[in-house]
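Researcher: Go.
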Amino acid sequence: RKPLTYVFGIKFGVSLIASNLSMAERIILSGETDASVMEVELGVQNPTAIAVLANCITLTPGTLTMDHLEQENLLIVHCLDGDTGEARKEILEWDRMLQKIFEGDNR
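Model: Structure:
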């Protein structure tokens, strides 16, 4: 699990830098956004992993975790880029990695 933790950290770091550059470009060049709120169904069940995921989302420029619906295991995420498939795909990738790290799931 330790190597996967490093992989997660590197992937998150790259995503964080890319998001910072994208948001800076958007603010400097156009200032326009297509904000929306999306629901993301999680696979991870571990409360610590969910907190890590929610914080990673919030730390990434252009996204904000608004709530976690515990019964449905959904995160409510505000995204300045709208409900893009790319943002959802990245969040679900982080979800799968954290599931493996925290729960030992080999999917």
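Model: The two ends are 13 Å apart (CA to CA).
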